[in-house]
Write a structure and sequence with these properties.
heterodimer, A: 67 residues, 2 helices, elongated, B: 384 residues, alpha+beta
């Protein structure tokens, strides 16, 4: 493991940052909408973090970890 | 980050999590059915619905509705009257022994068009009631609420410290790496980090708004002292208005609607209750826009004269409380949001459970081999 070089800030925090921003957009957009586009946007924005978690956590395992 | 700093954060994460995890697991588990309380109510047949009638069917006077409800429980007083958000055809009347806050209440649902009693649902018993009480106050009233609020605060500390540790931990691992081929504790450690970081903002918001909600009783009390006491100065020294001397509630409602045009009634708090004053019926009106429907405009109507005393604008702390509620309940984005809320809740359960598992495993190991105790961070992969 010590052979692997250190990843940069963007590599470590890129995904978490994007998912965090999406979550905030999702949480706020539905507050200002009435069952319209805002709810749809919220579903997409809140669904993505779950999708990412399920993909990396379970679905991708068969292809083998990189580290 | 220096090893020393890292160790401190690790300690913060460990202890804040350890103290709150069991309670947070309880809250996540009991919260799961609460997300779907309407659907479960429909399924159990406890949800009350009004029969469809032509839109212009005349409504009976609210005074009649109250009389009908009180006739069911002559030994009780009315504390609150409300209308569901999606139907103005129903009145929910809450009756209690006294105007003081209590868990001993009866609900009477009256049809707004016919004035007939539709149901007397018991919200204070059954499975959902137990889930609700465990979630809100552990059956311990205000003390239970504040205790859970403190646990919520520790959760926020655990989330922030977890995020701080995530950076150094992931220096050598690509995002989303789950080392499943190796030992199971590495797999669960990686899953803990992965699910923890993807649900970070959601868990922080739901934890934070939950904590704010535990202060609701105190915030309302503060509002009464802060804002209402000045408005009530002319009534100083007067006793609570006796039921016999009270004017028409329907007329008061009309006055309140005139005072706050473009709003719909959310609920009425009767004299002497936690949300009113001893001398007023407090009408809480909600806006008709998606966002303003979350906010409430209080209108205080003199219980005797049925004239509007004041319509104070909502102070920032009550606005914050009201906005924090949908953000905690996840009930503002339709069915899709409910399902996502449940999935995010399950992800949080996995984060909490795996965290607990990793700690128990480490404890067992360090117990067996005390020499490794100082290397706790190594076990977690935090130092090289």
């Amino acid at each position: 493991m010590s052979r692997v070089h250190h990843l940069g800030v963007l590599a470590v925090w890129g995904w978490p940052f994007v998912l965090g921003v999406l979550t905030i957009i999702g949480l706020v957009s539905a507050l200002f909408s009435d069952a319209g586009w805002g709810d749809l946007l919220a579903s997409i924005c809140l669904g993505l973090p779950i999708a990412v978690g399920v993909w990396f956590g379970w679905l991708r395992q068969s292809s083998g970890p990189k580290a | 980050m220096q090893n020393q700093t890292l160790r401190s954060w690790s300690k913060v994460h460990k202890w804040s999590s350890l103290v709150c995890t069991v309670f947070m697991l309880l809250l996540c588990l009991t919260g799961l059915p609460l997300i779907f309380h309407h659907e479960i109510g429909e399924w159990l047949g406890t949800e009350v619905e009004a029969l469809p009638m032509p839109k212009d069917t005349p409504r009976v006077s609210l005074d009649k509705v109250l009389a009908v409800a009180m006739a069911q429980h002559p030994d009780r007083v009315v504390q609150y009257v409300s209308q569901p958000e999606d139907s103005q055809d129903l009145w929910f009347v809450t009756l209690t022994p006294t105007p003081d806050p209590t868990d001993d209440y009866r609900s009477v649902v009256v049809d707004a068009r016919t004035g007939e009693v539709l149901a007397q649902p018991r919200f204070d018993q059954g499975f959902m009631w137990v889930m609700f009480k465990l979630h809100v106050d552990l059956f311990a009233g205000l003390a239970g609420k504040l205790f859970l609020g403190l646990m919520g605060l520790l959760l926020l500390v655990a989330i922030v410290s977890g995020a701080v540790l995530y950076g150094p931990f992931m220096r050598k691992l690509e995002f989303g790496t789950v080392r499943s081929a190796r030992r199971p504790h590495l797999k669960w450690l990686d899953l803990h980090n992965l699910l923890g970081i993807v649900t970070l903002v959601w868990f922080f918001v739901v934890g934070g708004t939950g904590m704010i909600n535990t202060w609701a009783d105190l915030i309302i009390k503060y509002w009464q002292n802060d804002q209402l006491s000045a408005l009530l100065a002319p009534y100083k020294g007067q006793p609570m208005v006796p039921v016999a001397e009270r004017g028409s509630v329907q007329r008061s409602l009309d006055a309140a609607l005139q005072q706050a045009p473009g709003t719909t009634l959310s609920f009425i708090a009767f004299p002497g209750t936690a949300y009113s004053s001893p001398h007023h019926n407090a009408f809480f009106m909600r806006g008709n826009e998606p966002f303003t429907s979350r906010l409430l405009q209080p209108v205080l109507v003199d219980a005797k004269t049925t004239e509007v005393t004041a319509a104070p604008s909502l102070p920032w702390y009550l606005t914050a409380l009201l906005v924090s509620q949908p953000l905690h309940f996840g009930d503002y984005g339709g069915r899709a949001m409910q399902i996502l809320w449940a999935l995010l809740d399950i992800a949080s359960i996995i984060v909490l459970g795996s965290g607990l598992y990793l700690w128990l495993r480490k404890e067992r190991q360090t117990g067996r081999n005390p020499v490794t105790k100082g290397d706790a961070l190594k076990v977690g992969g935090l130092t090289s």
